[in-house]
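#struct-help
A.M.: can someone run this one for me? Single chain, 228 residues.
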Amino acid sequence: MILCIADILPAELLEETRAVFACGRFQEGARTAGWHARSLKNNLQLDPAQPAVKKVQKKILAALWAHDLVRSSSLPKAFRPLLFSRYETSMSYGRHVDDALMGGLDEMHSRQTRTDVSFTIFLSLPEEYEGGELVMESAAGEQSYKLPAGYAVFYPSTTLHRVNEITTGARLAVVGWLQSFVPDAAKREMLFELDAVRRAVFQREGKSAEFDTLAKVYSNLLRMWAEG
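D.P.: on it. Structure tokens below:
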């Protein structure tokens, strides 16, 4: 399931994040790519050690944890540290799939995290740059995303994708990954749809017998499929 979420960041947090980009210190983005994607990744990333970057990352992660659609669609168990990326003219990220496991020895022996869901939060206005579309591949063909500032797209980390070359301007984005309590994307989608139905029934009828049945089925499927 590919899900676009509007205004995932409050306006003030969006502006604060853009301000960090304006005065931050950058590194080559290839240093955080997997070995097979390093030669394909040509962008810049904010140095994560900067206090301003740490501060805004904490706020963004808090906003994601609290977001109803993120919780319902992705069932997050853990988030990876965010990347703050900048693409300038002629920069791109070629066709690749995200690493299945992230973390470990390269992060002071921290525990590895399985990546189930990837996401991009767009920070630039679409008219501020040309090119730079996030393109995903599926059996149905390619899907291209260039969303308004503050919007996000969430998608299975198993997806082949790329960022098209920037021809003019600059593309700013926050990129992240999460581990879900339910690793299987098809099961997450079914739970998401069932959750939407039970919420709609509750809003229309309150705590009815039909709602209780839906709630029971949802909870028991989640219990069956969730990994501790």
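A.M.: thanks! The chain is about 30% helix and 30% strand.
D.P.: also worth noting: The chain has a mean pLDDT of 95.
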